[in-house]
């Protein structure tokens, strides 16, 4: 049996959610243990794009990521190859750009910032839970160390061990996704998202991307949703080659995609989307980032939400551990449920209907339609409505949110949000 240590807060997971939580907690004077099963630098399957809200949060914290590449407008490529340019405009509370950064560097920089702020970093998998008066109190790590704390923050990603042992997940409700990415030497300069039909008229239940990266290396990926059935994740790997061929046919991709599944940089990962099915906090346990299921159910972004929720959980704890769960839940209710309670039901309703997915993909990229709605689409899709600058794109996005709210009002997914928040 290893040594036992006690902290104010145990943060399990040193990705963007956990490291930002640890930065904010340690700067606020808390004694923090930050535990990750991996020794950093470590890679993470990702498109490597950080959106405008993530840029703003890093700026607020005064954290600089080295060697990033700034990105702005995005191109959406429809199933027939038609392109729509989504503008990236500044809002009142966020800038008009994002950036690309390899997760190897991004996550290591944030973890180092947490350590510099005073968090104590441990390498080891949180395995056996430790209990105190019926509540989760800490973990025994695979290294043998036993770490306990007054508050446990689960920042351990989509398949969170903390969420499982604390009984916070209803597996039958979760909206799972799986995505695969690879690196290619491609000169692409703008982020591209491709809505694809694996057979004509049958939309792929997800989308693919080609994002510019650093040092001439682009990031290509394919991701799909599968509701609560995690068995369907293999489709991303099976269809990867056909998707890359589609991108080449439409002159989006110039490079060859390595067909060997063991090629460097080819990596898959789970996404837990739209909050559905995960209770984000209870008692002395708070879940942040992917562990709380905060990934955008329409476009798969999760880094900004991970960092924003990590900081919010830290602030809730610093304001008083006894009410931290309540305060943090209120933050999530105000910040994320207005969007997730519309888009999670839309995701769940559309996913089993490949013809409807194809029809939506063709409609939004149809001549005239795409250009007319592009500004509002960019705001709504990227969850940038709160804090958007007044103008036609904000009006279109507000209208879309209103229509979405009305159409999803009677769904089971909406009922879950009403009960939970
Ligand atoms: C292929 C793919 C592409 C994506 N592309 C984008 C994108 O371009 N932009 C974007 O914003 N989002 C993207 N996402 C989503 C994004 O990767 C996540 O939302 C983000 O990483 C969430 O951060 P996190 O800190 O919550 O979790 P993670 O980054 O998953 O970090 C969790 C950490 O917990 C550790 N851990 C797990 N279990 C344990 C344990 N038992 N004990 C100790 N440590 C543990 C892991 O080692 C890991 O370091 C993508 C996801 C995938 C799969």
- The CATH superfamily name of the largest domain is FAD/NAD(P)-binding domain
Number of strands: 20
How many separate structural domains?
Answer: 3
CATH class of the largest domain: Alpha Beta
Main sheet makeup: 8 strands, mixed
The distinct bound ligands, ions and cofactors come out as: flavin-adenine dinucleotide
What is the CA–CA distance across the termini?
A: 41 Å
CATH fold-level label of the largest domain: FAD/NAD(P)-binding domain
Strand-residue fraction?
A: 15-25%
* Low-pLDDT residue spans: none
Determine the oligomeric state from the structure. single chain
Name some characteristics of this structure:
3 domains; 12 helices; FAD/NAD(P)-binding domain; eight-stranded mixed sheet; alpha+beta; binds flavin-adenine dinucleotide; seven-stranded mixed sheet; globular; 421 residues
Structure description:
35% of the residues lie in helices and 24% in strands. The chain has 421 residues and is α+β, with helices and mostly antiparallel strands. It has three domains: 4-68 and 101-172 and 273-337, 3-Layer(bba) Sandwich (FAD/NAD(P)-binding domain), CATH 3.50.50; 175-271; 340-420, no CATH class. The strands form four sheets. Strands 1, 2, 8, 9, 10, 11, 19 and 20 form an eight-stranded mixed beta sheet that branches. It has a seven-stranded mixed beta sheet with strand order 6-5-13-16-17-12-18. A three-stranded antiparallel beta sheet has the order 3-7-4. Helix 1 packs parallel to helix 3 (103-117) and helix 2 packs parallel to helix 6 (303-318). The longest helix has 16 residues, at 303-318. The chain is globular, with a radius of gyration of 21 Å. The two termini are 41 Å apart. Residues 12-18, 35-38, 44-49, 51, 125-126, 155-157, 161, 179, 181, 221, 223, 269, 271, 289-291, 295, 300-304, 306 line the site of flavin-adenine dinucleotide.
């Amino acid at each position: 049996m290893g040594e036992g240590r006690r902290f104010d807060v145990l943060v399990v997971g040193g990705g963007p959610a956990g490291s930002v939580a640890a930065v904010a907690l340690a700067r606020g004077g808390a004694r923090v243990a930050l535990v990750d099963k991996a020794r950093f630098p470590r890679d993470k399957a990702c498109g490597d794009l950080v959106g405008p809200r993530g840029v703003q949060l890093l700026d607020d914290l005064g954290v600089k990521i080295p060697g990033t590449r700034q990105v702005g407008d995005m191109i959406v490529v429809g199933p027939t190859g038609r392109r729509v340019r989504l503008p990236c405009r500044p809002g009142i509370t966020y800038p008009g750009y994002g950036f690309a950064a390899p997760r190897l560097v991004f996550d290591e920089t944030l973890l180092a910032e947490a350590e510099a702020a005073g968090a104590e970093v441990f390498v080891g998998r949180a395995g056996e839970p430790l209990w105190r008066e019926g509540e989760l109190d800490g973990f025994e790590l695979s290294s043998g160390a036993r770490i306990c704390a007054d508050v446990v923050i689960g920042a351990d990603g989509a398949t969170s061990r903390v969420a499982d042992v604390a009984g916070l997940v209803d597996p039958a409700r979760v909206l799972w996704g799986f995505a695969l990415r690879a690196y290619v030497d491609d000169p692409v300069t703008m982020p591209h998202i491709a809505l694809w039909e694996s057979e004509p008229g049958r939309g792929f239940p997800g989308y693919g991307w080609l994002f510019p990266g650093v040092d001439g290396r682009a990031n290509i990926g394919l991701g799909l949703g599968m509701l609560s059935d995690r068995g369907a994740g293999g489709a991303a790997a099976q269809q990867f080659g056909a998707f890359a061929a589609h991108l080449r046919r439409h002159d989006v991709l110039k490079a060859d995609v390595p067909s060997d599944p063991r090629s460097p940089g080819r990596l898959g990962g789970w996404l837990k989307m739209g909050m559905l099915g995960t209770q984000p906090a209870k008692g002395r346990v708070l879940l942040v980032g992917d562990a709380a299921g905060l990934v955008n159910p329409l476009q798969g972004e999760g880094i900004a939400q991970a960092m924003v929720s990590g900081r919010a959980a830290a602030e809730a704890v610093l304001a008083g551990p006894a009410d931290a769960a309540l305060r943090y839940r209120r933050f999530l209710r105000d910040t994320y449920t207005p969007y997730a309670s519309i888009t999670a039901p839309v995701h769940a309703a559309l996913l089993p209907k490949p013809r409807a997915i194809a029809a939506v993909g063709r409609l939004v990229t149809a001549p005239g339609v795409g250009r007319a709605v592009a500004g509002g689409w960019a705001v709504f899709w990227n969850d940038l409505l709160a804090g958007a600058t007044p103008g036609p794109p904000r009006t279109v996005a507000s209208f879309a949110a209103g229509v979405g709210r009305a159409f999803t009002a009677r769904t089971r997914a909406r009922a879950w949000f009403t009960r939970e928040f």
